[in-house]
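Hi,

Apologies if this is the wrong queue. I'm a grad student, and the batch job for ABC transmembrane type-1 domain-containing protein from Ciceribacter selenitireducens ATCC BAA-1503 produced an output file that my downstream script rejects. I'm not sure whether the problem is my script or the file. Here is the sequence I used:
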Amino acid sequence: MAYDMLIGLLAKALWQTMQMVVAAGVIGTIIGLPIGVFLATSGKGELFPAPAVNRVVGLVVNAARSTPFIILVVAIIPFTRLVTGTSIGTAAAIVPLTVATIPFIARLIESAIREVDKGLIEAARAMGATPLQIVTKVLLAEAKPGIAMALTLTAVSLIGYSAMVGAVGGGGLGDLGIRYGYQRFMPDVMLAVVVVLIVLVQAVQSAGDHLARRFDKRSRHN
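Support response: The file is valid. Your script probably expects a header line. Output copied below for reference.
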């Protein structure tokens, strides 16, 4: 394949992949973050005690997380068509990517919040802080490094998932690798796709690590 043509195809596929990752990441975070906060604060004796609801939400999140992504893509095709009017292409791929992201990030956010020192919560309570103030000014503030790493892991996972939706006509780098690298026997295209994915993942991971270090008070004091 001509070099100019390969660069053009890679640029277009990379742009589609970035659209999918950013859109699914943003929407998934907007929905998944409050679910994660709820899971971390609604157990028995916690800030917003609702253990029965907590168990139900936890079961739904676990069920969604345990569904293999490629099966999820196929299973929600009717919903994808309802939302986007089609089941193929970049816009359609954002729907299953977002659905997969929500429970994934909810559990990561829950884990990050649960790592916050319980003594800080008790201190805030002793000073008269409301549960909502404790969440916003203590839990989320102290969990920033963990949340940064959670968002980084989510973005890296989304890059991998976005490559998988290429197998079902989702567009992006995965679609380019399958259509040209595999179906048309062009190993140079497949190699280029793999290299771009590796570089993209490394860039996202490095940026996330840097952000987490900036948020980590302990690293700033060392």
